[in-house]
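<purpose> Linking amino acid order to shape
<body> The protein record starts here
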Amino acid sequence: MNTIEVKDNVFLLSTRNTSYFFYVNQYKHLEHLHYGCRVRIEDGEELALKRCLAYGATILYKEDPSYSLDQVAQEYGSYGRGDFKEASIELKDDASYTTEFLFDSYEIKDGEVRIPGLPSAYGADKTLIVHLKDEVRKLQLDLYYTIYPEEDVITRRAVLINQSSRKYLLHKLMSFCLDLYEDGLQMMDFCGAWDKETHVNLRDINRGTCSIGSRVGFSSAKQNPGFIVKRKDTNENYGKAWGFNLVYTGNHYSSVSKDEYGIHRIQGGISPERFVYELKKGASFETPEAVLTFSDKGLNDLSHHFHDFINRHIIRSDWKEKERPVLINSWEAFGMDFNKNKLVKLAKQGLSLGMELFVLDDGWFGRRSDDTKGLGDYDCNTKKIPGGIRSLSKEIHDLGMLFGIWVEPECINVDSRLYEKHPEYAIVEKDREMLFGRHQLLMDLTNPEVRDYIVQNVSDLIDKNKVDYIKWDMNRMMDGVSGVYSHEYIKGLYEVLDRVFTPRPHVLFESCSSGGNRFDLGMLCFSPQIWASDDTDPIERIDIQKGLSYLYPLSTVGAHVSASPHLQTLRQTPLETRFTISAYGCLGYELDLNLLSPVEKKEIKKQIAYYKKHRNTFQYGRFYRINEEEQYEQFEVSADETIVSKFRRIVHAAPIYDKLYALGLNDETMYEIVSRPYLHNIRQFGNLINFVLPVKIDANGHLMNEIGKRRGMDAAGQNYRASGAALRSGIYLNNLFLGSGFNDSLRIPLDYGSDMYEIKELKQ
């Protein structure tokens, strides 16, 4: 396939299923023609807007009665010369904000072109670079288009070069701009907060602007940088949708504007808020890379483009397309109140249940007994861990497990040895009282001395202690600084991560920032997985992980089973549901295993064995969201096998019949559908247990509690046979419990319950 065709200054960029089309018009402006399904380069004339006369009350360009920039679908919008849509570049000298970039030349390169100081995708087919010039201001604007044909992805970015003898103040330079003529569009973005990340937010795009962004210095749990624009009638399996994301971890801004003529201007990049960059003579400024994709087959297909692209062209290290280990993390078990014996005992318990990686979380260093002290120091607290981290690592490795450790290198406590020695390492506003987030300040990563300190200490921690996994946390937002400073901080962070992890590709690096405060493509260029949220309540995680799935593959999502009731919501949830949602990601456990009952330990051991058996499917299978029933969420992963799970929220009396759906199957093939066996906690049945026992017992008494610790009730085994076509339409399942009796075929519903089904092809 020829991915870049150029004919008479018409440019057609092609992927397996999509075309991106623009041309140089008669006034040397880049005019957008089409981004959508595959077309031919000969279609350019008919895809162009037919301008006979300009609308009234517009500014005509060169006195052409049919041409006003306000009515042109452009590749990159600037201010002035008759264009009143939101500009993608804002640049000022002493006199004016006006810029006008006209076509000068182009070049095509094999592969991708790296961005100095910023991460970007790799393994591209070709890159088109279009050179535009503003001859009045002596500026050059280079637009980069990089093609990933198999994933149906095109990336874009911009570079501004000052070729004049004067300096300019750059306030805004977007990574991409896309003008679309489409009707009836909606913007789907993914907003939230700490403990409530990436919830779907859907808005109709009417006249005016819908925008998202971050002001906290990082990509932010408040608003993920990824978003989708879709037709109103588009659903998971049908219709047009355009997806966008940034390979960037800092403050971002994206917007979708609809003007009075029906043009939708979509753009995104570094946030222009408080951004003033001095562009000196001969200097240039490069934007982060933006990722664009399109599908006319619905949102699931659009997500598949993102998932394939990230797994193949964003993730690095030895962990690219490699199965992630099942881990046990010490945090929700002990917090900071632990000693070496507790840790080793937890690891042994985890090993006996099938866990493969032990992770020591916060509290192991310096004066760290609570979160008011110790950050910035790396000396192990040998009162807690005699012999230091190296001795603990050896004991864990001797058990046959991998060893991991938590760090928070970007932050510092005032109560630390580092701050006592180097208070200048902290970011503070001069002449103002210091403000703290979680009792801590950010380290100044724009300072090379600070970067060297972090690189040296984290590298030593890994190398001297044979660390296999790093959980890199960051729990403070950035405030009181300029937009340019926050951008330089992010570039400093990227340098640190590159220096630590590129020479150590064997280390599994999991990024964390108060949960999902930095779940973005920039971090994924260094960390193969990211901790999705500090909220481990599975009912909350359904919405969080569903939101993430629109943009990011399951192989990147850290998901843990924790104790119930949950620390974040005080909600009681079944152990099976905690496992089921966590299986759709990188499975871990985060609870005190010593407090589990014998029956719970047996269930967890079975869960882990099941997950390991199907791990590649859960982490790398084709993921589908199935939203056919209001009372349920349904997730599917499909590879050589298919696994489908149904999640319930609140149970109602006299429940209606429900169905099981599956999408990633062959319509003509016959399949067997078998439910995953698990145990119900018998204590949840209360006094109903007396209807089946020969003697009556106190449902809340000691005997019932002791029985419940050792015995459970088998969930009703379900077995069905159906074609792929029938499963796509939905097959009816056995009744849920109706309150009118009981038999072995009834499914026990439970508030917050779930069921998992394995679907296999029937052998003839």
Observations:
- The radius of gyration is 28 Å.
- Residues 562 and 739 are 31 Å apart (CA to CA).
- Residues 327-618 form a domain with the TIM Barrel fold (CATH 3.20.20.70).
- The chain has a mean pLDDT of 94.
